[in-house]
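Help needed: design a sequence for this.
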């Protein structure tokens, strides 16, 4: 009795298809990781620009507005007066207030906490002025210019 031989050419075609699928999947994973890294990078750069804007406003404590354009914030980010006060060596954390005109940002009733509700792309405005015991008194606004004081 003769053994039937499988079509070796057909078997090799399936093997080549499998190799192509594995290489395609590997390439897809590389592309997705690059996209994720670029996405994360825009949030890191925005955080640096946020800090730079706040620092610039502190160094101009005469109420001169400072604007940082096109900043990106992640859902769930929280900005507090106490965290900024600690980072920038404020004696009194109550000297920092938050404002918003953006639907993606929620500010607490006492204006001392700002929460990012969903991913946000907006301009942020800062101003600081020496007022009373606050040296300086700073305001941070997401999405709208601050009124001159």
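Sure. Designed sequence:
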């Amino acid at each position: 009795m003769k053994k039937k031989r499988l079509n070796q050419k057909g078997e090799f075609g399936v093997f080549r298809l499998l190799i192509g699928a594995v290489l395609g999947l590997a390439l897809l994973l590389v592309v997705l990781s690059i996209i994720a890294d670029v996405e994360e990078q825009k949030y890191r750069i925005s955080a640096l620009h946020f800090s730079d804007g706040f620092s610039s406003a502190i160094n101009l404590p005469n109420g001169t507005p400072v604007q940082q354009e096109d900043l990106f914030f992640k859902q769930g980010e929280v900005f507090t007066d106490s965290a900024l006060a600690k980072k920038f060596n404020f004696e009194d954390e109550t000297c920092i207030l938050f404002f918003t005109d953006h639907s993606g940002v929620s500010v607490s009733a006492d204006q001392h906490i700002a929460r990012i509700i969903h991913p946000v792309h907006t301009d942020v405005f800062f101003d600081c002025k020496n007022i009373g015991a606050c040296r300086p008194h700073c305001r941070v606004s997401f999405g709208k210019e601050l009124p001159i004081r």
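DSSP finds two helices and seven strands in the chain.
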